[in-house]
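G., the chain you wanted modeled:
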Amino acid sequence: MLEFKQIEIEDKVWADTLLKMSDFRGAEYCFTNLFIWDGIYQSKIGRYKDFLLLRTGSAPDFRYLYPAGTGDVKEVIELMIEDAAHNGSSFTIIGVTDQTAQELKSLFPDRFNFNTVRDSFDYIYDSEKLISLSGKKLQPKRNHLNFFASNNNWRYEELSSDMIAEIKDFNHEWCARVECKKFETLSWESCAVEKCLDNYHLLDLRGGVLRVDSKIVAYTIGEVINSDTVVVHIEKAFSEVRGAYPMINREFLSRVAPAYKYVNREDDIGDEGLRKAKESYYPIFMLEKFYAKLF
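Predicted structure as tokens:
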């Protein structure tokens, strides 16, 4: 029988090893995301042989992440099905992409119903394009960036652990301005961001801070997620500071992403404002996600 447990920072070492074996590009396949969002999604982690497992929610509606690692995929999914049945739960796999959907259909013909989950699609960008903001479509972004550079006494700094308290103060001010408490998704995100900052050094993340006259006006945090992709977990700026968003994007990615083909800016969680913001950078493709529910 499979065993699931609370996700702890010490799990990062073995989890990263198994995640690297699959080389998945989806934002779910990153220990940071599994760790910082565990409370919101009631997530538990598990290991079976060389597979990383994740179970979210509660019975009778457990959901399981498509397993990451190497070995007999059919064997481990059959054990996941048994785990759901043992707990009186339906069986649904999340984080399924076109690639893993085909594998699932081949291993379990006519046993799963697949439904697209638009709110979970990851926005994938060409790394060079996102750094340079070249081309006619991105001219407005360059205009905002140039305005920021010309009208502010600014500097970019690598995010270090001794800045965490200052960044938390920025977050509190940012949340007050956008009224986080009025929106469930922003309240959830605030909890995840706080956990990320509390464990910034232990998670081995990269980040950057943008200052105007020594005050933080934007910051971002990300990391390498697989062999060809950098993922951006957090990007926040004071919206009234024109150009702060494209500037923090450029400065961070120009240092972290040049050796990688893609940048994953994660999903939009169904928020229309966030969707428009992500679309405005013109992703080269969307990483589609499905729920696969056992008949």
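Residues 66 and 100 are 8 Å apart (CA to CA).

Shout if anything looks off.
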